[in-house]
Each structure stands twice: as structure tokens, then as C-alpha cells.
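Hi all, posting the design record for the shared folder.

TITLE: backbone redesign
STEP: 1 of 1
STRUCTURE INPUT:
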């Protein structure tokens, strides 16, 4: 928990900086990558973690300035195609709203939060949602 506090403190510091030149912008990108890496390392120790009856959070990985959460969906007898057609739009709305509500500091600092959903049966990627500050309607 202390490391999460440190991450948020770093983000708050970044928010007070205005990226006026390329050198400063690059320093912010490097800091964001470090924050993403620290967050992933801090949170990954709790995995895998059951989210609901059909979903498990199986990985949290740093991907540059993106914090990538990977979930597995056990849809039982439903085909991957059916899960995609029935769930992508609804899941996209709910995931985006949730990320916008809970990750504002990350997003406002230029970090993207991505949720990727895989089929537990086939390993196929069913859908992925990348959320950044623009998608949430934040403005600096």
C-alpha cells in the first residue's frame, strides 16, 4: 500500500509540471514508464484474482506508458464469437466508465489504462479497451 501512495505522490508531482519543451516532455514520459512499472510490480503480487463468477484478473503488465490488465473470461459453452458479439459494446462502456472513475490521476498524468480480455477456453483475445484522459473527457 505504501508503494501505491508513492505512485500517487509521483503522479501528483507530475500534474503540477507543464511540459513546455521536448526535454521536459521526454522526462515526463520516462517518469510515466517508471510509475507504470512500479504499479504493475506492486499489484501483480495479488494475482491471479477472481473478479466475478466468470472473470479472473491474471496479469498486470507495464507496456511503456500503458498499464495493461489481462483478464480471462470463462464463458462456459458460449463461443468466442458469441461472447464478442454479446459483450464487447456493453463491456466497453462499463470498463471505460470504471477506469475513468477510479484512475483519474494516472490518466491525467498521461498514462493509459488498458483492459484485455482473453477466452479461458481458447486463449484468444476477445476484446481490449485502452482508456486515456481524452476518452474520459478530461482536459489539462
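Okay, here is what came back for every position:
SEQUENCE:
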Amino acid at each position: 500500500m505504501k508503494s501505491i501512495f508513492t505512485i500517487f505522490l509521483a503522479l501528483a508531482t507530475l500534474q503540477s509540471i507543464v511540459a513546455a519543451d521536448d526535454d521536459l516532455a521526454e522526462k515526463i514520459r520516462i517518469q510515466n514508464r517508471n510509475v507504470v512499472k512500479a504499479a504493475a510490480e506492486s499489484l501483480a503480487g495479488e494475482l491471479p484474482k477472481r473478479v466475478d463468477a466468470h472473470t479472473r484478473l491474471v496479469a498486470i503488465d507495464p507496456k511503456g506508458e500503458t498499464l495493461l490488465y489481462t483478464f480471462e473470461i470463462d464463458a462456459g459453452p458460449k463461443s468466442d464469437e458469441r461472447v464478442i458479439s454479446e459483450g464487447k459494446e456493453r463491456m466497453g462502456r462499463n470498463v471505460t466508465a470504471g477506469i475513468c472513475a477510479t484512475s483519474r490521476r494516472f490518466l491525467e498524468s498521461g498514462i493509459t489504462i488498458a483492459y484485455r480480455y482473453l477466452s479461458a477456453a481458447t486463449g484468444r483475445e476477445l476484446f481490449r479497451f485502452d482508456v486515456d484522459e481524452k476518452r474520459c473527457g478530461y482536459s489539462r
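COMMENT: The domain at 2-136 is CATH 3.30.300.250 (GMP Synthetase; Chain A, domain 3).
Let me know if anyone wants the other runs.
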